């Protein structure tokens, strides 16, 4: 599939000196348990299967992660969501539903480990899970110990039936801290993913007890349809997070809280909907691009057995995954957002510019067109490098006086035929392509250092000092570009 973005590059004049750093960090914050320095990647059964889970589904999905090359792109966690247990036994330990998991979970987890994957489990910080199975509230030690004994590597911890033990950040903090301490006490390395829907502002307190926290009500497979069951437009102070939140609703909620994503502790924008059929190709490209650029966990949420070549091509783009797995572990900043007149059938129309400074000094620019028509979109270097000018006393940023190469991160997208061949015959058919990537062989951090071509897309133009990046962006799509300093042409006058 050809990249839908044509690119012009433009305009020079006047140069200026000086510089500033573009990072926003919380001093002293880091992974509380040393895990998850970059966002977790994997698959979770919930979005596609709900309660219809069993051993066959989990193991065959694990095999498909391997056979499609998704494991070696970094999708490592196979997460069993709600509805796996049958109750507690008389000594107070959870028991697996033996109809769904005839052997119990420990042997399945061991088989999944043998495929080079990790295993995640689900519970709720309430008396029941959301599906009304037994929850872990006030059973934290026993449940954590049992999961650790089974070999669990990851816990997703929901918020249903919490007995009203919420309403202030401190009450929620204590309820989630109990499981954090219980997991730590097992001595096993377990990624702890809080799923409290942004309730009581976890972006303010969860980074010392967890590796990620949900910042919104549940996603649904819609690009931008407003839904009364997801009433908040802002994450901060949202008292009723709800569910049926669209991609654009969740994306816009991130704008104010993005600085609270950091290495080891990420804002979780919820699982991916790519593949579930409710959005078109451009919309899924936008969803995936922005989740990656904002350092959300990347958890596949679809039936991998029926994944289309187009959707595999989206989920397999190493140049986009590399943003998510960048050692900077930061999240993009929204520099501007405008409502536009071309509203779609959902009554929505908006455009926005997002930027993020990467570990190697590149800057990534995302031009989101959520209007109803293709348009030419412009990002001035002054907007892209606003923070470098305004960090401390105003001074013109050195970046404004720099020549930039522009790389289209969707330029190396797998063609339909190649993706079909991967689904039918495995990733080795494209293993010798320079635009494909194996993160199990060479991790993203090293690949970025070595300028591996698969991680940079295709070069489509340049922007001169004080210039403007202009891109043609399709309806409900995104222009996603890496700006790289032109070697040997820095700061010339
Ligand atoms: C396992 O779950 C899948 C997905 O819900 C379903 O299609 C399949 O029939 C189930 N298999 C068994 C043996 O229950
Ligand atoms: C309850 O489950 C735990 C953990 O699997 C087990 O060690 C214990 O023996 C069980 N207790 C009873 C009474 O079955
Ligand atoms: C437990 O917590 C301590 C202190 O935060 C940390 O150093 C240690 O790595 C943790 N251990 C596990 C197994 O998570
Ligand atoms: C971008 O700039 C071009 C050229 O100046 C202009 O035609 C176009 O309307 C601009 N697009 C937007 C969305 O402002
Ligand atoms: C990989 O290399 C082999 C041998 O040179 C060649 O036949 C094949 O077409 C190549 N495949 C790709 C996807 O480049
Ligand atoms: C990726 O590399 C690992 C380690 O070298 C290897 O075991 C695996 O088969 C490779 N995967 C693919 C899809 O080529």
TrEMBL record:
Catalysed reaction equations from the record: Hydrolysis of terminal, non-reducing alpha-D-galactose residues in alpha-D-galactosides, including galactose oligosaccharides, galactomannans and galactolipids
Signal peptide stretch: 1-20
SUPFAM superfamilies in the record: (Trans)glycosidases, Glycosyl hydrolase domain
The Alpha galactosidase C-terminal domain covers 348-415
- GO MF terms held by the record: alpha-galactosidase activity
| Main location (coarse class) | secreted
Enumerate the subcellular locations listed in this protein's record, separating them with semicolons. Secreted
Pfam families referenced in this protein's UniProt entry, alphabetically:
Melibiase_2, Melibiase_C
Function text: Hydrolyzes a variety of simple alpha-D-galactoside as well as more complex molecules such as oligosaccharides and polysaccharides.
Q: What is this protein called?
A: Alpha-galactosidase
Q: Which organism is it from?
A: Trichodelitschia bisporula
């Amino acid at each position: 599939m050809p990249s839908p973005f044509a690119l012009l590059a433009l305009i020079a004049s006047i140069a200026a000196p000086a510089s500033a750093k573009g990072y926003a960090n919380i001093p002293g914050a880091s992974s509380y348990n040393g895990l998850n320095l970059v966002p977790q990647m994997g698959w979770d059964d919930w979005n596609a299967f709900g309660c219809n889970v069993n051993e066959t589904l989990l193991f065959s999905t694990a095999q498909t992660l391997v056979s499609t090359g998704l494991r070696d792109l970094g999708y490592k966690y196979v997460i069993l969501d709600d509805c796996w247990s049958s109750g507690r036994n008389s000594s107070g330990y959870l028991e697996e539903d033996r109809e769904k998991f005839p052997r119990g979970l420990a042997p399945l987890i061991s088989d999944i480990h043998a495929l080079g994957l990790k295993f995640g489990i689900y519970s709720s910080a309430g008396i029941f899970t959301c599906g009304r199975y037994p929850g872990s509230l006030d059973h934290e030690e026993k449940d954590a110990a049992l999961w650790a004994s089974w070999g669990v590597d990851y816990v997703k911890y929901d918020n249903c039936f919490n007995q009203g033990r919420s309403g202030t950040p401190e009450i929620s903090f204590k309820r989630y801290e109990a499981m954090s301490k219980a997991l730590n006490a097992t001595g096993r390395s377990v990624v702890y993913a809080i799923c409290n829907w942004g309730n009581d502002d976890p972006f303010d307190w969860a980074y010392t007890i967890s590796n990620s926290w949900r910042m919104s009500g549940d996603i649904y497979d819609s690009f931008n349809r407003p839904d009364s069951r997801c009433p908040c437009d802002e994450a901060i102070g949202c008292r009723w997070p709800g569910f049926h939140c669209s991609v654009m609703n969740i994306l816009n909620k991130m704008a104010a809280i993005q600085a609270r994503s950091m290495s080891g502790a990420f804002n979780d924008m919820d699982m991916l909907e790519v593949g579930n059929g409710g959005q078109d190709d451009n919309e899924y490209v936008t969803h995936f691009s922005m989740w990656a650029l904002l350092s959300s966990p990347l958890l596949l949420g679809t039936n991998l057995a029926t994944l289309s070549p187009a959707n595999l091509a989206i989920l397999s783009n190493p140049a986009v995954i590399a943003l998510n797995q960048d050692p900077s572990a930061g999240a993009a900043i929204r520099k501007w957002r405008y409502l536009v007149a071309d509203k779609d059938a959902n009554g929505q129309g908006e455009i926005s510019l997002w930027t993020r400074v990467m570990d190697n000094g590149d800057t990534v620019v995302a031009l989101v067109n959520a209007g109803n028509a293709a348009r030419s979109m412009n990002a001035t270097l002054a907007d892209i490098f606003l923070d470098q000018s305004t960090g401390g006393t105003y001074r013109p940023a050195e970046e404004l006086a720099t020549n930039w190469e522009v790389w289209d991160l969707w330029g190396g997208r797998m063609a339909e035929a190649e993706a079909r061949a991967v689904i039918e015959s495995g990733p080795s058919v494209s293993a010798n392509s320079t635009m494909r990537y194996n993160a199990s062989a060479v991790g993203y951090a090293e690949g970025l250092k070595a300028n591996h071509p698969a991680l940079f897309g295709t070069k489509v133009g340049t922007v001169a000092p004080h210039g403007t990046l202009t891109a043609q962006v399709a309806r409900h799509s995104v222009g996603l570009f890496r700006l790289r300093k032109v070697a040997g042409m820095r700061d010339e006058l």
